[in-house]
Amino acid sequence: ALSAGFNLHLRLSRGSLSVTNFLFPWIYHSLAVVPEHGPKRVEQLYGGGETTFELQLKAFAEAVRGVAPFPTTSADAVANMELIDEIYEASQLGKRPSRMRA
């Protein structure tokens, strides 16, 4: 469930996960992991205040310059899309139609 405050709460088969302010994590955020059996864990990680876009751009530039490897692969992209398809299926909306042209 999403709220106007950009929070997300997931009820999972072995616990729950709450993400506070996932759209603007450089301002403030938290991840609360609540296992079915075990203690609740709240995590926060703050860097130098960069936005997600700035960090992605930096990683891309470093990879293009040969300073660092690309952080993701085409296999990662396929796995992400498969996960998105599974989310749509679980929501009973079905997979989104393809926009691919023949």
Task: Describe, in plain words, how this protein is organized in 3D.
The protein is of the alpha+beta class. The protein folds into two domains: 1-47; 50-94, no CATH class. It has two helices and four strands, in the order E-E-E-E-H-H. It has helices at residues 52-64, 74-90, and strands spanning 8-12, 15-20, 30-35, 41-43. It has a four-stranded antiparallel sheet, with no helix packed on it. Strand 3 (30-35) and strand 4 (41-43) form a beta hairpin. The longest helix has 17 residues, at 74-90. The chain starts with 7 loop residues before the first strand and ends in a 12-residue tail after the last helix.
Q: Structural class given helices, strands, pairing?
A: alpha+beta
Low-pLDDT runs of 5+ residues are: none
Number of strands: 4
Shape: extended
Estimated share of beta-strand residues: 15-25%
Mean pLDDT: 85
Gap between N and C termini: 36 Å
Organism: Coccolithus braarudii
Protein name: Gfo/Idh/MocA-like oxidoreductase C-terminal domain-containing protein
What's the short story on this structure?
The protein is of the alpha+beta class and 102 residues long. The protein is built from 2 helices and 4 strands; from the N terminus they run E-E-E-E-H-H.
Map the helices and strands.
Layout: E1 8-12, E2 15-20, E3 30-35, E4 41-43, H1 52-64, H2 74-90
Antiparallel strand pairs: 1-2, 2-3, 3-4
Which key phrases capture this entry?
4 strands, alpha+beta, 102 residues, extended, 2 domains, four-stranded antiparallel β-sheet
